[in-house]
């Protein structure tokens, strides 16, 4: 019986990508469970999907990651319940480098 070897996805090979994938997944779940209708929820969902695709395809470019983060954060506004998950996505993106100086 032959054993097929699966090539690991970039997220499985790159710990930064794996961390971002987990953070995106967590935020997606929390957003889906959030009972209040948000006017820009669709924007947040689309950008979370974009981040997920970037991670899975191994094409996580810092400017695109930051753009998606900005759109997610602005579309969710000040929903404090989602704040920790948004922060986790931001932290994961910062690990890719080129973090802005404060």
Please give the alpha-carbon distance between the first and last residues. Answer: 57 Å
Q: Radius of gyration in whole Å, from Cα?
A: 15 Å
**Beta-strand proportion:** under 5%
Q: Quickly give the structural class.
A: mainly alpha
**Mean of the pLDDT scores?**
85
- Give me the strand/helix succession: HHHHH
Helical stretch tally: 5
Biggest sheet architecture? none
Fold and architecture overview:
With 102 residues, this protein is mostly helical. The protein has 5 helices and no strands. Helix 2 packs antiparallel against helix 3, helix 3 runs antiparallel to helix 4 and helix 4 packs antiparallel against helix 5. It is globular and about 35 Å long. 23% of the residues are buried.
List the helices and strands and how they pair.
Layout (H helix, E strand, L loop, with lengths): L9 H4 L1 H19 L7 H17 L4 H15 L6 H12 L8
How do you describe this structure in short?
The protein has 102 residues and is mainly α. The chain has helices at 10-13, 15-33, 41-57, 62-76, 83-94. The termini are far apart.
Question: Which features would summarize this protein structure in a list?
Answer:
66% helix, 102 residues, mainly alpha, 5 helices
